[in-house]
Amino acid sequence: MGTPVVWEGNVGNAAEHRSFANGNKDPRHMLRLNVMFDNSIPDGQGGYKDRGGFWCNVEWWHQDAERFAELFQKGMRVLVSGRAVMDRWKNDDGEFEALKIQASRVGMLPHRVTMVNLAPSQNQNSQQSNRPESRPQPAPGPDEYPDTDPPQF
């Protein structure tokens, strides 16, 4: 069954896509991420202090997993919701177990993101053909944000 979780962390390696045969139906697609779920707390000086964390594999079964594998990158901040389960297996070296997340959703968080390009929706393709093309704008630099004090926790 598993324990419901909503955890935030950093992707630790390139995303992995796998396809599995599904009889006469379309293959099933899985995205696998290795994520460091950290426990950062405010340090009182505008930064954060690391209080430990752990690595965990995340498996997300989704029809667009192959495309998503190109989007998720090492170092990207993600929010994962799903179920934490114990993965058990045997091989020639013995019996093993490890915690893994069976994700129902994996969201990209905007930390370190500098640009986002959206494809037009299928409904808007014909409507946008008469509009001038807009170009993506780079994110503002650190000096271009207004000075605000970080929230106090």
Helix content: under 10%
Q: Give the class from helix and strand content and strand pairing.
A: mainly beta
- How many H/I helices? 1
What proportion strand? over 45%
Taking the sheet with the most strands, its summary is: 5 strands, mixed, barrel
Radius of gyration: 20 Å
What topology emerges from the helices and strands here?
Elements: E1 3-11, E2 16-22, E3 25-42, E4 48-61, H1 65-71, E5 77-91, E6 94-108
Parallel strand pairs: 4-6
Antiparallel strand pairs: 1-3, 1-5, 2-3, 3-4, 5-6
Summarize the structure.
With 153 residues, the chain is mostly beta strands. Helix content is 5%, strand content 51%. Strand 5 and strand 6 form a beta hairpin.
Structural account:
The chain is mainly beta and 153 residues long. 5% of the residues lie in helices and 51% in strands. The chain has one helix and six strands. It has a five-stranded mixed barrel. Strand 3 (25-42) and strand 4 (48-61) form a beta hairpin. The longest helix has 7 residues, at 65-71. The chain is flat and about 55 Å long. The model has no long low-confidence stretch (mean pLDDT 84).
What key phrases describe this protein's structure?
153 residues; mainly beta; 5-stranded mixed barrel; 1 helix; 6 strands; 5% helix; 51% strand; flat
